[in-house]
């Protein structure tokens, strides 16, 4: 079971519609992150930081995170995977008190989560929430156990690394990652932690990004990883109910409530048979819209 602190973190992370990454080796770019409008930002010491610049990246992450957090940004640092030679130094030297959490990529075994917890404790950060990257074949297979671990407060699915691990081929239709995508979001639902969807590497392709947002939301994802500021607004808009969805939900619930009060359990509405599961979905839509309005 999650501790109270971890439960609070999961609630905070529940509104991560957009998680924007920037390389830890770009001190010119990192200060601009709070102006992107992203729900949270990540200083990336992993993929976006080359092997010869890891120490430099850690220093930038440690020094710049407090500055951008001071501007109101929710800030994470992505460290290198547990199995790499850089992980321990990343935790020991790359973190600061300003962080909302640590992003740990390529988690695929429970003992790796224990290693993360131990390293954070030794670094004096025992309560720092973990956002787990599930992006290997084994990670997808073990996702339920990994995301249920009490130190994990949120997770993301990484399609590019997953397909590389599988020896597969990425396609525009995403059929090759549908099973894995579904497994990760299902694991998150069962564990009670929010999940974020894969990146769109063609950051100039707004149409592809919007399509993937629709796919991800339909699967149950709460947000999406962003690798360019232009993707942030698309993610923020795509993971909340549209005005049309809200209006449809209100009309459906009004009709369904009147029918229920008359003793009717199923009705025809806009050419569709509606019973309690569809009414429940309409309630979820309205609740999400209300929560978005409260958050401004």
Provide a descriptive summary of the structure in words:
The chain is α/β, with parallel strands linked by helices and 296 residues long. It has two domains: 235 residues, Phosphoenolpyruvate-binding domains (TIM Barrel, Alpha-Beta Barrel), CATH 3.20.20.60; 53 residues. The protein has an eight-stranded parallel β-barrel, surrounded by five helices. A two-stranded antiparallel sheet has the order 9-10. Strand 7, helix 9 and strand 8 form a beta-alpha-beta unit. It is elongated, with a radius of gyration of 20 Å. The N terminus is likely disordered.
CATH architecture of the largest domain: Alpha-Beta Barrel
Please give the alpha-carbon distance between the first and last residues: 31 Å
Largest sheet, spatial ordering of strands: 1-2-3-4-5-6-7-8
The helix-and-strand class reads alpha/beta
Number of helices: 12
Helix amount:
40-55%
Ranges where pLDDT stays below 50 over 5 or more residues in a row are 1-8
The CATH superfamily of the largest domain appears as: Phosphoenolpyruvate-binding domains
- Domain module tally: 2
The SSE order reads HEEHEHEHEHHEHHEHEHHEEH
Strand segment count: 10
Described by strand count, sense and barrel closure, the largest sheet is:
8 strands, parallel, barrel
The CATH C-level name of the largest domain is: Alpha Beta
Strand content: 5-15%
Indicate the mean pLDDT: 93
CATH topology of the largest domain: TIM Barrel
Q: Cα-atom Rg, whole angstroms?
A: 20 Å
Shape type:
elongated
């Amino acid at each position: 079971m999650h501790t109270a602190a971890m439960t609070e973190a999961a609630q905070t992370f529940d509104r991560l519609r957009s998680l924007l990454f920037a390389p830890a080796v770009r001190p010119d770019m990192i200060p601009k992150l709070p102006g992107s409008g992203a729900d949270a930002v990540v200083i990336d010491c992993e993929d976006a930081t080359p092997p010869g610049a890891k120490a430099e990246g850690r220093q930038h992450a440690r020094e710049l995170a407090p500055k951008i957090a001071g501007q109101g940004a929710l800030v994470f640092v992505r460290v290198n995977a547990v199995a790499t030679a850089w992980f321990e130094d990343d935790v020991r030297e790359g973190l600061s008190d300003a962080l909302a959490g640590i992003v740990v990529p390529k988690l695929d075994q429970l003992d790796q989560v224990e290693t993360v917890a131990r390293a954070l404790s030794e670094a004096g950060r025992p309560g720092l929430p973990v956002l787990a990257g599930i992006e290997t074949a084994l990670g997808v297979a073990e996702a339920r156990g990994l995301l249920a671990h009490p130190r994990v407060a949120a997770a993301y699915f990484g399609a590019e690394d997953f397909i590389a691990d599988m020896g597969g081929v990425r396609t525009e239709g995403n059929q090759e990652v549908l099973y894995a995508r579904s497994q990760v979001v299902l694991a998150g639902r069962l564990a009670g932690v929010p999940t974020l969807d894969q990146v769109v590497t063609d950051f100039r392709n707004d149409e592809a990004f919007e399509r993937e947002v629709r796919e991800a939301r339909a699967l149950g994802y709460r947000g999406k990883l962003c690798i360019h500021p232009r993707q942030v607004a698309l993610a923020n808009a795509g993971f909340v109910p549209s005005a049309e969805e809200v209006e449809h939900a209100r009309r459906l619930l009004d009709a369904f409530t009147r029918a229920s009060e008359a003793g009717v359990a199923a009705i025809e509405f806009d050419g569709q048979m509606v019973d309690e599961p569809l009414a429940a979905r309409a309630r979820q839509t309205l609740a999400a819209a209300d929560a978005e309005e409260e958050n401004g």
